[in-house]
Amino acid sequence: MNFNRVLLLKKGNSDHKGKYVIYWMQQSQRVHYNHALEYAIQIANQNDLPVLVYFGLSANYPEANRRHYQFMLEGLKEVFAILRNFKISYVLKLASPEVGILPYLDQTHCLVMDQGYLRHQRQWRDDVVKYAKTNLEHLSIFCVDTDLIVPVLIASQKAEYGAYTLRPKIRRLVNEFRDFTRLSVLKNQNQVEISSDDDLSDMNHTLKRLNLDHEDMPQIPYQGGYLEASKLCLLFITYKSSRYLESNDPSHDDTSKLSMYLHFGQISALEIYERVTLALERQQMDGAVYDAFVEQLVVRRELAFNYVYYQEGYDQFETMTEPWAYMTMKIHHLDFKPYIYSLEQIEMSKTHDPYFNAAMKEMYLTGFMHSYMRMYWAKKIIEWTMSFKDAYETIKYLNNKYFIDGRDANSYAGIAWCFGKHDRAWTERSIFGKLRYMNDKGLERKFDIRKYSAKIETMGN
Ligand SMILES: Cc1cc2nc3c(=O)[nH]c(=O)nc-3n(C[C@H](O)[C@H](O)[C@H](O)COP(=O)(O)OP(=O)(O)OC[C@H]3O[C@@H](n4cnc5c(N)ncnc54)[C@H](O)[C@@H]3O)c2cc1C
């Protein structure tokens, strides 16, 4: 493992042995390719201690609903089963993560946490470090970046302007961070006796205890967890990848659909990278396909994490994009708009545009939407909403409500891209100014878009 993934956040008293090493799992909800868990095991082995994996399940996670919780708990159920097999103790607490962990810190030798990237995730970790600095002199705290291939702090130390500025940095570093072979065996397998707050064998019971808002939302056709993610990865390599270069076409289903698993950390980007690289080496994957996929998985994805990490107001209309984009929006904010739709009309797929309606329906019914349609969908909301700010709020609200992969670094970067971030200025036109424009004629020209609409039409009937 490349130790440049690890940050020492607080140095404690090394004489304090404690009863166990805690790994606070939050971002990286997996056992495979989890450098933070690996680091906790390494420290535990050096000190002949067991490991305790802690997970805090907050009922008030920002913008999360039953759809997100169910997918996440399906994954956690698998994680706990694997930990049991590996004789690693774990505890799940129904509490805000940064609060639920505090009672366990007195007796711990050291705390290892995985890296969070969004504001509230970083705040949780900061709160624990702050608490430890005043109350727990003995405690050392480490943070491990395991959800990115090249850690966010190493890839770049500033907000990058676009993929073209980040790409060479990532390319230079990527091989240094192909650093996972296998999880070390934990030597001290004594079980830490701590009562866990919940039994995930009864998912409905856990969901009920979370007291979530009871909004009627259709059951999604995707199942959470590493096993499902791993199967999708294999399916992509074996069958879909040969058509990946044409995967922009929404009428085909040729992308990996791994974004929702990546979002919850149920599979690691590094594992996917290693698997596609092996396929390339064995000539099971074409070089051009490999390059195109790696561009998305590594460059575009890591650009999104760079964005939320360094751009403080990544989720606020006023601070999420570039000066040229604000300038052009200011010039065009009073342009005449032939169609204006309310949030309800948009959410209920009640617009004049059958392709938009199909995309919205796909999102509502399945929790996913084809990548090209995400761009089209967001651009249409900009076109049909009273102001750019209202459009931004509507897109963000629907994105994070319905997508299983919503509330991700990619969500904020993807939405901001529609408002010019990481893009360039285009030829001036009404309503959009210099922001990139997309229209239904483009969809019809490039793809069999009617086939896409027809496919969605049959869903949920
Ligand atoms: C308006 C808008 C909103 C978006 N909202 C989200 C969101 O909420 N969550 C989310 O994960 N992605 C979002 N994206 C990015 C992208 O559309 C999805 O990541 C992609 O559709 C996921 O499908 P896939 O896993 O089959 O992709 P594949 O083509 O199989 O790509 C593999 C992986 O590469 C990464 N990737 C692919 N496309 C992009 C991209 N454009 N930018 C950054 N990384 C990418 C993802 O991690 C993806 O899983 C959004 C894009 C736009 C334009």
Description:
It is a single chain. The protein has 461 residues and is an alpha/beta fold. The chain has 3 domains: 3-146, Rossmann fold, CATH 3.40.50; 148-182 and 226-310, Serine Threonine Protein Phosphatase 5, Tetratricopeptide repeat (Alpha Horseshoe), CATH 1.25.40.80; 317-457, DNA Cyclobutane Dipyrimidine Photolyase, subunit A, domain 3, CATH 1.10.579. It has 19 helices and 6 strands. It has helices at 35-46, 66-85, 97-100, 119-135, 152-155, 163-173, 203-209, 226-238, 259-263, 269-281, 287-310, 323-332, 343-347, 354-366, 371-384, 388-402, 409-418, 440-446, 449-457; strands spanning 6-10, 20-24, 51-56, 89-93, 108-114, 140-144. Strands 1-6-5-2-3-4 form a 6-stranded mixed β-sheet, with helices on both faces. Helix 11 (287-310) packs across helix 17. The chain binds flavin-adenine dinucleotide. Residues 255-259, 262-263, 296-297, 300-301, 304, 371, 374-375, 378, 399, 403, 405-406, 408, 410-411, 414-415, 417-418 line the site of flavin-adenine dinucleotide (FAD).
